[in-house]
Amino acid sequence: MKFQLNFTTDYRQFYINDHNASGSTGSEDFWNEQAYVDKLAIEDGIIGVGIANEQGIVNGELEILDSKSLIIDFGGFDHVAEASIKIHSGVLQVLDCPHSGIELEIQIENGEYRIRVYSLNLESAYDEVPNDSYKIEMWKEVYSDRNVLKRFNE
User: Fold this and answer.
1) At 119, which helix (H) or strand (E)?
2) Number of independent structural domains in the chain
3) pLDDT of residue 91
4) Are 58 and 15 in contact (CB under 8 A)?
């Protein structure tokens, strides 16, 4: 299943979360220093995705895969990071910040998932018309720590 993402957000972030997430985006640990440089924040049931442009434009896609991503060559991407999330409610949401407006809501099987965020065209984020975009893949996988597979050097 593939879903297009096209919305605006504030504070250069948006959220992917379980409908009944118990974590808080206001937690001191959510956007800690490591999360900020990794462009990915983690709380129980919530993933925060950092975007580059200051206008809050989110363009991209979210794809639910049947198995682990087959992409192993990250040459076409600027930054690639992944983290795990547990879904308990059967509902996955993509929310803006700070209002938590629902931009996407889908039924999904409960379980542990890996979310990988590919960031593209990050250098264009400060152009008059930013062209940064975000490809997000998600598949069932045993919970593990956040990992940066390719780091963007700003």
Assistant:
1) strand 111-120
2) 1
3) 98
4) no
Domain assignment of residue 77, given as a range = 2-150
Structure tokens at 104: 């996407």
* Cβ atoms of residues 95 and 101 within 8 Å: yes
Q: Which amino acid type is present at position 46?
A: I
d(CA 101, CA 112): 24
| pLDDT at residue number 128 | 87
Residue 153: the pLDDT is 84
- Phi, psi dihedral angles at 82 (to 5 degrees): -140, 155
CATH number at residue 96: 2.60.34.30
pTM of the entire predicted model: 0.95
How far, in Å, CA of 132 to CA of 134, rounded? 7
Kindly report the number of other CB atoms within 10 A of residue 153's CB atom. Answer: 5
